[in-house]
Amino acid sequence: MLVDMGKAKECGADVVEIRLDYLKDFNPSHHLETIIKQCPLPTLFTYRSVVLYQRSRAAEVHNLSEKRRRSRINEKMKALQNLIPNSNKTDKVSMLDEAIEYLKQLQLQVQVS
């Protein structure tokens, strides 16, 4: 690890971040003391608990599913717009208003027939 820090310094790094949760077989009392004493660069130690990782992963999954849902809604709104004659509205509320009015007209035509 110290060798990698030396390489980072040679490449122009100003600071090194060590994610403690990524390290296997890490003995904090021994390894931290060695790193602090021998590290050629200032070192930032971070730790991300499993719970935080799971929460961020759950948020990521939720965001992706919401993005897919919005995409599907937009596709269906375009399909609906193509079914309504002379429809030129782009916002969803106006589009739905036009669709409702058009369906009401169709219902009246069916009742009159």
TrEMBL record:
InterPro entries associated with the record: Aldolase_TIM, bHLH_ALC-like_plant, bHLH_dom, DHquinase_I, HLH_DNA-bd_sf, PIF1-like_bHLH
BHLH domain residues: 57-106
UniProt lineage: Eukaryota, Viridiplantae, Streptophyta, Embryophyta, Tracheophyta
Family matches, as SUPFAM superfamilies: Aldolase, HLH, helix-loop-helix DNA-binding domain
Protein name as annotated: BHLH domain-containing protein
PANTHER family for the chain: TRANSCRIPTION FACTOR ALC (PTHR45855:SF6), TRANSCRIPTION FACTOR PIF1-RELATED (PTHR45855)
GO molecular function, one term: DNA binding
Annotated compartments: Nucleus
GO cellular component: nucleus
